[in-house]
Design a protein that fits this description.
Number of helices: 14
Order of helices and strands: HHHHHHHHHHHHHH
Largest sheet: none
Shape: flat
Radius of gyration: 25 Å
CATH topology of the largest domain: MetI-like fold
Number of domains: 2
Number of strands: 0
């Protein structure tokens, strides 16, 4: 038998395996995206069409729910609040977390391992255990229902996340980069900001993107620490779910849910280049 005869079964198995992987990927995308598709579809339906059995795919779309509920629930103001809080907490956590991760990766500190473990263990504390003490402290200081209070609260669970991700990026970089810069006269801070930060920019951007998305969808702290002025979109959705006597207003929930998801999707599409580059660098370095 020729070599081509031996290679033919291998090529068939390779093509079959590729088709199976593609089919599995398509199936997974359908499973994960179908709830989002149904939410967007239902947001354009009348209330009576949402409960039609069997469900209808063809109907007369309407924007009545969007228009009426954006006015009633003051969604635009809460959307702006969410943008402010997500951007502020993402920037603050990436600055503090990156420097903490660099310190754990590069600087020989006594008890550095213990410090890292304690910070990591803080991620295991239930958020509800922190929400009530934070509210009491904020109320005693008179800073409830403020953007900065919510930003600082979000940083309590974002900074450990950022620190451990960036620690992995910094460990993958050779130490000779900072040593060369310090030989040329840079301080430790100068070497960090002039050499390490530019090289690690993809990792910094991807980590900040994930942090902002986590802050965007957070509900508990926003529900406890805000009342009206600084309340966010998740609080509005929780209010819509509980403001009816005869059941949830599914039209309003799907409409506001769609408004909440669209900015995240647009933001992810705009920054996907840096996001993918950061993930690829984190997977291949070291």
């Amino acid at each position: 038998m020729t070599a081509a005869a031996f290679d033919a079964p291998l090529r068939r198995r390779s093509r079959l395996g590729r088709k199976v992987r593609i089919a599995a990927g398509v199936f997974a995308c359908v499973v994960f995206l179908f709830p989002v598709f149904w939410m967007v579809l239902s947001s354009f339906k009348e209330q009576r069409d949402i409960f039609t059995v069997p469900p209808t795919l063809f109907f007369t779309p309407t924007l009545e729910t969007y228009i009426s509920y954006m006015q009633r629930a003051d969604i635009s103001r809460r959307l702006i609040n969410t943008v402010i809080v997500a951007a502020g907490s993402g920037l603050l956590s990436i600055v503090a977390g990156a420097m903490a991760g660099y310190a754990l990766a590069r600087i020989k500190l006594r008890g550095a391992g213990t410090i890292g473990v304690i910070i990591l263990l803080s991620r295991g504390v239930p958020p509800i255990a922190l929400a009530v003490p934070m509210f009491l402290v904020a109320r005693s200081l008179g800073v409830t229902d403020m953007h900065i209070t919510l930003i600082l609260a979000y940083c309590t669970f974002l900074i450990p996340y950022v620190m451990w991700l960036m620690r992995g990026f910094f460990l993958a970089l050779p130490k000779e980069l900072e040593e060369s810069a310090m030989i040329d006269g840079c301080s430790r801070f100068g070497a960090f900001f002039k050499i390490i930060v530019p090289i690690s920019m993809p990792g910094l951007l991807s980590t900040m993107i994930f942090s902002m998305i986590l802050a965007w969808e957070e509900l508990l702290f926003a529900l406890v620490l805000t009342n009206r002025y600084a309340s966010t979109i998740p609080v509005a959705i929780a209010g819509i779910a509980g403001d009816t006597v005869n059941g949830a207003n599914w039209g309003a929930l799907t409409a506001v849910g769609t408004i909440t998801v669209i900015p995240v999707v647009v933001f992810a599409l705009l920054v996907q280049k840096w996001l993918i580059q950061g993930l690829a660098d984190g997977a291949t370095k070291g």
